[in-house]
Amino acid sequence: SAVISQKPSRDICQRGTSLTIQCQVDSQVTMMFWYRQQPGQSLTLIATANQGSEATYESGFVIDKFPISRPNLTFSTLTVSNMSPEDSSIYLCSAPGGDTEAFFGQGTRLTVV
Amino acid sequence: AQTVTQSQPEMSVQEAETVTLSCTYDTSESDYYLFWYKQPPSRQMILVIRQEAYKQQNATENRFSVNFQKAAKSFSLKISDSQLGDAAMYFCAYRSVRAWEYGNKLVFGAGTILRVKS
After folding, report:
1. What is the pLDDT of residue A54?
2. B111 neighbourhood in chain A, CB within 8 Å
3. If we measure between CA atoms, which residue out of B11, B6, B9 comes closest to residue B116?
4. Contact B103 A33 (CB under 8 A)
5. Is the pLDDT of residue B39 over 90?
6. How far apart are CA A104 and CA A93, in angstroms?
7. What is the sign of the dihedral through the CA atoms of B71, B54, B37 and B109?
8. Cβ contact (<8 Å) for A104 and B45?
9. Between A and B, how many CB-CB pairs are < 8 A?
């Protein structure tokens, strides 16, 4: 199994600012995933991050708003840029573990005021 | 595209009793993976159980078992002897085996809040 450390666990930010969320995996993984979970709702995939290449974004998400870095096989960051109250959500990173399952970070609860 | 539907926004169960959470999905693939994840208030996503579509036998993990009906595209979760610690949001999720096309990304249902009464 993989252990994923995600930080910060929560933050309150002013609108117009940016927040960078970090995820560290205790083993090397080819892909990492970033999800958004809006209040009371399900998880929506933002993007898939592969090491050494640009992230692949899902429909409705753009790189300028959610830039992602993947400098090595154990680490990734997601930045939420130019935040507005609509960006208030839980953000989770994930990595595959073995052939089938996925492991998740603890989540970052973001509140934009 | 694959979709996952959980039609029960909220369920309640008495401690020590059994509850079943429903999940249906839509896919044109014949092989895939299905999962139930639990998300307690701590926000940590915890894998409860998984099922490979090519396996006819229903998966079980201690008090948790699934009823996998491939033809009906149904994947329900049964929790026996419910405990207070089972209270959480439960998500049904689908993953394609076609990693070269879809990566390992999961498609989640909307979730079911499970409340356990003492």
Report:
1. 86
2. 41-42
3. B11
4. yes
5. yes
6. 6
7. negative
8. yes
9. 51
Interface of A with B in 17-76 (CB under 8 A): 31, 33, 41-45, 48, 56
Nearest residue to A18 via CA among A69, A68, A82, A66:
A82
Kind of pairing, strands B32-39 and B46-52? antiparallel
Q: What is the pLDDT of residues A43-89, one digit of tens each?
A: 999 999 988 788 999 999 999 999 999 999 999 999 999 999 999 99
Name chain A contacts of B109, Cβ cutoff 8 Å: 42
Please state whether beta strands A19-25 and A75-80 pair in parallel, antiparallel, or not at all (unpaired).
antiparallel
Structure token pair of residue B101: 């096309």
- The distance of B55 to chain A (nearest Cα, Å) reads 14
Helices vs strands, H then E, count in chain A: 0, 11
- Nearest CA to B88 out of B64, B114, B65 is that of B114
Chain B residues within 8 A of A101 when measuring between CB atoms: 35, 47, 50
Contacts of A100 in chain B (CB under 8 A): 33, 50, 52, 95
3-state secondary structure of B16: coil
Other residues' Cβ atoms within 10 Å of the Cβ of residue B69:
12
Count, residues in chain A: 113
Residue A57, classed as helix, strand or coil, is strand
Contact (CB<8Å) B111/A102 = no
User: Residue A89 corresponds to which amino acid?
Assistant: S
